[in-house]
Amino acid sequence: MKNPFDTLETVGVIASNSTDYVRRLLSNLAQGLVSVPLTGSGDEERLAFTHTNIIQRTDTEGGWIAEKFTSRSGDDAAQISFTSGTQGKPKAVLLSHGNLHDAVCRVTETMEIDNEIREYVGVPVYHSFGYGRCRVVLNASGACYVPSGGFDLAEIRHMLIAGEINAISAVPSLWRVFLAGLDRFGGELKRVRWVEIGSQYMSATEKAALRSALPNARIVQHYGLTEASRTTLQRIHEEPAETLGSVGQVSGAVRVRIGDDGRIEISGPHVALGVAEGEYWRALGHEVWLQTSDLGRIDDGRLYYLGRADDVINCGGIKLSPDLMEAAVRTELLARNLDVGEFAILRRPDPMRGDGIGVVVTSPVKLVQDTLVDAVAMQAGAQGANARGAISVHEVQSLPRTATGKIQRVELAHVLEARLTLEESGRDETNDTFSQFLERLVGHPISLDMLFADLDGDSLIHLQVGIALERALGDIPAGWESWPLRRLVSVIEGAGYYHFRMAAGENAPPLPDGSRNMNPDNISFWNLVREDYRTNEKKIMSQGFLMLFVHRFGNWRMGVRKKIFRAPLTIIYRILNKTAQIVCGIKLDYTVQLGRRVKLEHFGGMILGARKIGNDVIIRQNTTFGIRSIDDLNAKPIIGDFVDIGAGAVIVGNIEIGENTIIGANSVVFVDIPPNSIVMGNPGRIIGVNRRKNLAAYSESSKVDKNAGSSRGLE
Fold first, then answer.
1. Is it the case that residue 65 has pLDDT exceeding 90?
2. Which of 6, 347, 464, 700 is the most buried (most CB within 10 A)?
């Protein structure tokens, strides 16, 4: 279906947390113009994507807004919003006047809002939640206050004492700041009459604490998406204690159900007209069932949020939600009066359990590790997962968040992976002792005076240590679990059992120096470009195709032997290459020897520092090819023909991936892989034989039908 952005009358509005920004959007609504929030005047991507030529600049002043505004219905386009981008690049969402109006009406009715409302909008108004609050308040003939400095407890207290505000809207992360600073407030909190909470999960304990602190407020939490705002609403101020953990019920013509795979599905007049991602446009509308990425259940008409399907940690067969675990751990630490600073939970590779539990903190690991491991293990245990040995704690400088405080787990995983890869690259593990191996196994330092039974290890740790004993001694001694670790380590190391890490290899040969044209020599430059165009689904704006063109051009210029003629081409290549890296999120230097019919699917996060990439290779997003150790900067991998590489794969070192191999998503590979293999896990292990059609037949078919696209392999 054709992207409707081609025909809309759009106006770009530079986003700022200001009254001017809100007034601009409301004025455009009244004039029938479709507003496009911009990150700045140089936001070329959004301008080009939405075919927007007019830019409205806004000032940055906060203050009061009391504009006359009347919400209206209708299926005509009203604005383009962008998703928060917690799981990748933000998508563009086309909303109608009817979408906006339906949310305004249901929120107003649920909260019983009247023209006396004077609201402190604690969420940035360039976010859909904050801007939505302004529409709700102004439609009721009330007034809203936009704080120029953001959410400020001292300002809120002053304005409550002065009688200037009687309503507050904020996201859970800000309400946690409020609850932590309750001692700064007094009787002025009784003046709060309306509160709306949205955008993130909030635990029942936190909700109960909030309604206790604000005894006279109508407190409403909503669950929804940019594509379907305020799907459910929960009246926290009158919700029974036993159902406070839900995210509310539907109202009006909104409908919710749970799909066969456990995901929340939504239908109703608030569902957007459609969503655009890259060049792909997906039409929606009030008759369509929108499948979300959120897991949930419905009990007695109430919706319960069970976490994002993309984030779920499958630890030994038990599925754990990072959102819910974070909330439970936070509540537990608060009850014990323990402060560990900012932390987040995310899925980490674990070769034995499938997924491990990564805890990322901004505090020094040494100070908080034991506390966090205990708390996380307890919460995982409550859900049936004996996960202590699967928990690892990592320190980062900051947690990447959206404008409303949501953890960007995909970005956080990349940050953590980059840091750990750097640490691993400089560490020699070939002389690891069994005690060092055991410490990594349980995820924390050990005392050799402890008994193995005191480690609180799960069955997988027990199994691995048992195997080590059997290999070292030929048999497993009875009652070894009651041995002191000192004796266990002495027995295993004394028997010479050191087979935990692969030995270091020889240094790799020098890399190509880029002094010649390394494009395939059996095809002309423009025929090669046409072939890349066909391979990448005949999309001229495909990021994969654009990056391939830059790579081919970078090599072609090296065929111009006179340096004086080649120099301007080199300048052009360098500009194009850096632009492509920024716009496409792909790094593929011309010195990488690249075969034919290579497909770069699902652009973004690609660092393709290989020695050579063969013919008919598929590479997906967030993949990394490169060195394993800074001791050998030439040690880069060779990717054979017909290799299919899943998203998030890491292939490093002086290794070769054999032809017709499938590398599963999120696999980490640093050893040679023979042809026709299927590889999964971290570290990557061969789990089977790839039995798809033989290479010769496939090669012949690719010669006969050069226009055929390819979608084989694992996502």
1. yes
2. 347
CA dist 294 and 274 (Å) reads: 19
**Exposure of 583 by Cβ count < 10 A (0-12 exposed, 13-18 middle, 19+ buried)?**
middle
On the question of pLDDT at 218 being above 90, the answer is: yes
Q: Are 596 and 474 in a shared domain?
A: no
* Confidence (pLDDT) at 495: 56
The residue whose two tokens read 């993130």 is: 200
For 614, residues 6+ apart whose C-beta sits below 8 A from its C-beta are 595, 638, 639, 640, 641, 642, 643, 659
| Cβ atoms of residues 288 and 267 within 8 Å | yes
174 and 274 share one domain: yes
Please answer whether residues 155 and 147 qualify as being in contact, where contact means their C-beta atoms are separated by less than 8 angstroms. yes
Residues 6+ apart with CB under 8 A from 451: 481, 482, 483, 484, 485
Q: Please check whether residue 506 lies inside any domain of the structure.
A: no
Cα–Cα dist 60/22, whole Å: 11
Q: Which amino acid is at 40?
A: G
In this structure, what are the phi and psi dihedrals at residue 37, rounded to the nearest 5 degrees? Answer: -65, 130
Mean pLDDT score of the chain, rounded to an integer? 83
pLDDT band at 99 (very low <50, low <70, confident <90, very high): very high
Q: In terms of residue numbers, what domain contains 69?
A: 4-308
What span, in angstroms and rounded, lies between the C-alpha atoms of 224 and 81? Answer: 14
> 184 CB contacts (<8 Å, ≥6 apart)?
153, 154, 157
- Do the Cβ atoms of 102 and 252 come closer than 8 Å? yes
Cα of 595 vs its chain's centroid, Å: 31
Where does the pLDDT of residue 11 fall: very low under 50, low under 70, confident under 90, or very high at 90 and above? Answer: very high
Q: Each residue of 571-621: pLDDT tens digit?
A: 999 999 999 888 888 999 999 999 999 999 877 888 899 999 999 999 998
Return the amino acid letter for 221.
Q
What are the tokens at 94?
């086309």
Structure tokens at 705: 């039908």
pLDDT at 394 over 60: yes
Residues 282 and 319 in one domain: no
Contacts for 275 with CB less than 8 Å, ≥ 6 apart = 91, 92, 93, 94, 227, 281, 282, 284
Residues 48-70 have a mean pLDDT of 90
CA atoms within 13 A on the CB side of 68: 0
Task: Provide the H-helix boundaries in 142-278.
Answer: 153-161, 172-180, 204-213
Whole-number pLDDT of residue 701 = 35
Provide the number of structural domains found in the chain: 4
- Alpha carbons 120 and 69: distance in angstroms, whole number: 18
CB < 8 Å & 24+ apart, contacts of 416-420 = 416/346, 416/358, 416/360, 417/624, 417/650, 419/394, 420/394
Max Cα distance, the chain (Å) = 84
pLDDT score for 168: 97
581, 442: one domain:
no
The pTM of this model reads 0.57
Say if residue 10 is in the same domain as residue 137. Answer: yes
Contact predicate 211/192, CB 8 Å: no
Identify the CATH number of the domain in which residue 562 sits. 2.160.10.10
Cβ-count burial of 612 within 10 angstroms (0-12 exposed, 13-18 middle, 19+ buried)? middle
